[in-house]
Amino acid sequence: MNKANKIAIVGATGMVGQAFLKILEDSFKDSEIVLLASSNSKGKEIIFRGKNYKVRELSEFNFTDTDLALFSAGSSVASIYAPKAVSQGCVVVDNSSCFRYQEQIPLVVPEVNSEVLDQFQLPGIIANPNCSTIQMLVALKPLHDEFIIERIDVTTFQAVSGTGKEATEELISQIDAYRGKKNFNSSVYAKPIANNVLPHCDVFEENRYTREENKLVKETHKILDSNIEVAATCVRVPVLNGHSESVHIKTKKPITEKLAVSLLKEASGLSIKYGISEEDYPTAFTDGDGNNLVQVGRIRKDLWSDNRLNLWIVADNLLKGAALNSIQIASLLFD
After folding, report:
1. Buried b vs exposed e over 149-180: b needs ≥16 C-beta within 10 Å?
2. In the chain, what are the domain boundaries?
3. Tell me, what's the pLDDT at 231?
4. Can you tell me the distance from the alpha carbon of 171 to that of 6, in angstroms, rounded to the nearest whole number?
């Protein structure tokens, strides 16, 4: 296996960038870490592994002696600097949507389709999927292998951290303003997020679904099975961190609750809550936030069909939904 002697974190000052550093405290410990961001963050100091690291400007950086770059700086930045990094001999794992749908670029959830990296030629770009897709497919992969999923109906309940730091700050400020009975404005979202739910994640596209909803369709087809019908409604909720999903699946083979639970308990990357108490379910705050595993609960057979099952899925969107999945991908290529 290749050695990652030097790793660059692109977008180091952002929320996912900070999640990268949290994970790297205990992984790739022998690697030199370089922190990169825009000119606005140049010179900023970040404490990492007990030392002060200065953030360097991405536009001035040469990737020639860098083995791996973990990108989380958005599609516009990735479109310019990821190909540049590859041309200089660096492997890129990109967290944006920039390269996800390009046929020649792998789109990877390690627990689901790591085999696509068997033929991956270094250097190159690997795309990290959308956060909602990752947690859903980690949970559905063992069920698809056994019962063959034909349709997925999913409603997501997505935390504001998925939008970024400004959205997190806006939620907190709106809650404070509401408590003080003050008026407040919404600049990040179209409508107030405090005490509200918005069936509006990302922009609306021509088919009247949002880009986030269409991502779930496209990415499920590329990662799991192109024959699965997917219908998604993505909802932004006033939660700081941790995405939740209500998922209903239709399978080709009759699905038994007992076998489904057994398969989920045996699968990697999952924590299952089932059959312990009435409150036998994970939540974003108590179980998802800060946890590396995808949490699954409320597993129950459909009342009308032997080929349908309902699940509740929760995960930390900054960890498994972004930074952790990227580092897991990197771990398949480097030690």
Report:
1. bbebbbebbbbbbbbeeebbebbeebeeeeee
2. 6-128+322-333, 133-317
3. 98
4. 37
At position 186, the amino acid (one-letter code) is S
Q: pTM of the predicted model, to two decimals?
A: 0.96
Query: Rounded to an integer, what distance in angstroms lies between the CA atom of residue 314 and that of residue 317?
Result: 9
**Please, where are the H alpha helices in the chain?**
15-24, 75-87, 110-113, 131-147, 165-179, 211-223, 257-266, 324-333
Phi-psi sector, 43: left (phi>0), alpha (psi -120 to 50), beta:
left
Q: How far apart are the first and last CA of the chain?
A: 7
Give the catalytic positions in this structure.
131, 243
Beta strands in the chain (DSSP E): 6-10, 32-37, 45-48, 51-54, 56-57, 68-71, 91-94, 125-127, 149-158, 229-236, 243-251, 270-272, 294-301, 308-315
220: helix, coil or strand?
helix
pLDDT at 180 over 80: no
CATH code for the structural domain at 6-128+322-333: 3.40.50.720
User: Buried b vs exposed e over 205-220: b needs ≥16 C-beta within 10 Å?
Assistant: eeeebbebbbbbbbbb
Residues 6+ apart with CB under 8 A from 182: none
User: What DSSP character marks residue 209?
Assistant: S
Mean pLDDT of 145-157: 98
CATH T-level fold of 133-317? Dihydrodipicolinate Reductase; domain 2 (3.30.360)
Dmax (CA) of the chain? 61
The string of pLDDT tens digits covering residues 51-109 is 999 999 999 999 999 999 999 999 999 999 999 999 999 999 999 999 999 999 999 99
